């Protein structure tokens, strides 16, 4: 029973944190509630592989299908930069609600038929598109959280650093405590940090690991990513000058996570986003 209560406590916090941002800003643009992340892999046997041609093919699909799909709020591609697998690329879509995920797939099919009415032309395009990818892929669905610094400029390629944290379920966990800690982290370390061009948080909704909570940082370059890491200790000292208080604060914060995290760096592909 204790374990169940601990899980419900933290999930309640995460649910509240995913909606509080919207409630506090009634006149703000609608914010996505769900994210689908598809990890795909290049077809390494494709002899005619050409990156510029791949971009033009996906650009055509973006303009003729995805941009017209009213159920897809955003979409974007990410290429391997520093990950364990150089064949992977990530395709991300966001949605206003869970039902729109299924509706978007159905709408894709309708728009594809509208874009290429002749079956022969449609098959030719889709085969050309599919030729770049292997049959292997994985899908995850995440619930967005309220700690967001919107990315304003998507006109150029960017570095996307993704940190995958794993939640713990402490017996003495408190919703207000972890919410306050995460809010102050965002306000003092991320929100006004000029190196961080965009920041998004999301947590597991459907997939292989229910403990996942992810942070995505967008920066101009790898050099800026290094500067961000180098500058964080000083920002922490400025935000919480008292060393004893600072250590106690991070001790409290860390009890909500199990100490294991993963790092990955991708390249955001400009021109292929909605």
Structural notes for this entry:
- The N terminus is likely disordered.
- This protein is an alpha+beta fold and 274 residues long.
- The protein has a single domain, classed as Alpha-Beta Plaits (2-Layer Sandwich), CATH 3.30.70.
- A hairpin with a 5-residue loop joins strand 2 and strand 3.
- The protein starts with a helix and ends in a 6-residue tail after the last strand.
- The protein is elongated.
- Helix 1 packs across helix 5.
- Helix content is 41%, strand content 28%.
- Strands 1-3-2-8-5-7-6-4 form an eight-stranded antiparallel beta barrel.
- Keywords: Signal.
- This is ABM domain-containing protein.
Could you give the topology of this structure?
Elements: H1 2-24, E1 34-42, H2 51-64, E2 74-82, E3 88-95, H3 99-115, H4 119-130, E4 133-144, E5 158-167, H5 175-190, E6 198-206, E7 212-219, H6 222-239, H7 243-254, E8 257-268
Antiparallel strand pairs: 1-3, 1-4, 2-3, 2-8, 4-6, 5-7, 5-8, 6-7
| CATH architectural type | 2-Layer Sandwich
Morphology call: elongated
Distance between the termini: 45 Å
Number of strands: 8
Helix content: 40-55%
**SSE pattern:** HEHEEHHEEHEEHHE
Mean pLDDT: 91
């Amino acid at each position: 029973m204790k374990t169940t209560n601990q899980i419900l406590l933290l999930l309640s916090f995460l649910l509240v944190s995913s909606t509080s941002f919207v409630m506090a800003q009634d006149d703000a643009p609608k914010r996505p509630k769900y994210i689908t992340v598809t990890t795909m892999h290049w077809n390494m046997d494709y002899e005619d592989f050409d990156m510029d041609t791949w971009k033009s093919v996906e650009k055509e699909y973006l303009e003729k299908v995805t941009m017209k799909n009213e159920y897809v709020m955003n979409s974007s591609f990410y290429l391997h930069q520093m990950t364990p697998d150089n064949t992977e690329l990530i395709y991300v879509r966001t949605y206003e609600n869970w039902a729109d995920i299924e509706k978007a797939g159905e709408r894709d099919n309708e728009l594809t038929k509208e874009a290429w009415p002749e079956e022969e032309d449609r098959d030719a395009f889709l085969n050309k598109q599919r030729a770049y990818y292997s049959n292997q892929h994985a899908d995850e669905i995440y619930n967005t959280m309220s700690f967001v610094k919107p990315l304003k400029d998507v006109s150029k390629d960017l570095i996307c650093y993704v940190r995958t944290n794993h939640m713990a379920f402490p017996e003495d966990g408190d919703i207000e405590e972890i919410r306050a800690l995460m809010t102050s982290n965002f306000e003092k370390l991320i929100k006004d940090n000029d190196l961080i061009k965009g920041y998004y948080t999301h947590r597991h909704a459907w997939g292989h690991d229910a403990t996942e909570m992810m942070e995505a940082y967008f920066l101009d370059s790898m050099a800026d990513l290094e500067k961000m890491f180098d500058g964080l200790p000083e920002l922490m000292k400025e935000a919480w000058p008292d060393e004893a208080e600072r250590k106690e604060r991070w001790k409290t914060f860390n009890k909500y996570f199990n100490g294991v995290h993963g790092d990955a760096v991708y390249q955001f592909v400009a021109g292929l986003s909605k």
